[in-house]
């Protein structure tokens, strides 16, 4: 479903779909009659939204994930690597919160530097 609708529009879509007894094509006509100033979803959208709410219990959402990864500058990458050199047991989550950079960018920087985050764990002496 390429279009994104507001929650209010989704509620109206489901209401009209039910009002028309699950007939998506008549739901399109009824929706257009009741809401002339809104964009009108196609008949497949009515069926999809109803089925999605029925199976998932929530409205469909549009992913906000970008295809382009965040590019860090050299200073940010060096800062991450210095933090790990100073404190090897530092978690990626702590590095992320201290630097204000996304956690996946911290992971990528460590991976590019052939470093892998780990936690130092004390074990029982034998």
Name the average pLDDT: 84
CATH topology of the largest domain: Arc Repressor Mutant, subunit A
Helix content: 40-55%
Number of strands: 0
Order of helices and strands: HHHHHH
Structural class given helices, strands, pairing? mainly alpha
The CATH architecture term of the largest domain is: Orthogonal Bundle
CATH class of the largest domain: Mainly Alpha
Main pleated sheet: none
Unreliable segments of 5+ consecutive residues: none
The radius of gyration is: 25 Å
Number of helices: 6
The shape, in one word, is elongated
Number of domains: 2
CA-to-CA gap between the ends? Answer: 61 Å
Which strand-content bin applies to the residues?
A: under 5%
Kindly summarize this structure in a few lines.
The protein has helices at 7-19, 24-34, 43-56, 74-86, 92-99, 103-112. It is mainly alpha-helical.
Would you mind describing this structure in some detail?
With 126 residues, the chain is mainly α. The chain folds into two domains: 7-56; 68-126, Orthogonal Bundle (Arc Repressor Mutant, subunit A), CATH 1.10.10. Helices cover 55% and strands 0% of the residues. The protein contains six helices and no strands. Helix 5 (92-99) crosses helix 6. The mean pLDDT is 84. It comes from Aquatica leii. This is DUF4817 domain-containing protein. It holds the Pfam family DUF4817. InterPro entries: DUF4817. Residues 7-58 form the DUF4817 domain.
């Amino acid at each position: 479903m390429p279009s994104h609708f507001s929650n209010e529009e989704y509620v109206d879509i489901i209401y009209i779909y039910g009002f028309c007894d699950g007939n998506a094509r008549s739901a399109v006509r009824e929706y257009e009659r009741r809401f002339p100033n809104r964009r009108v979803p196609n008949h497949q959208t009515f069926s999809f939204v109803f089925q999605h709410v029925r199976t998932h219990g929530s409205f469909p959402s549009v992913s906000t994930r970008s295809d382009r990864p965040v590019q860090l500058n050299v200073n940010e990458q060096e800062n991450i690597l210095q933090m790990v050199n100073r404190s090897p047991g530092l978690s990626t989550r702590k590095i992320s919160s201290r630097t204000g950079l996304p956690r996946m960018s911290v992971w990528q920087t460590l991976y590019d530097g052939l470093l892998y985050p780990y936690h130092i764990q004390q074990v029982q002496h034998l």
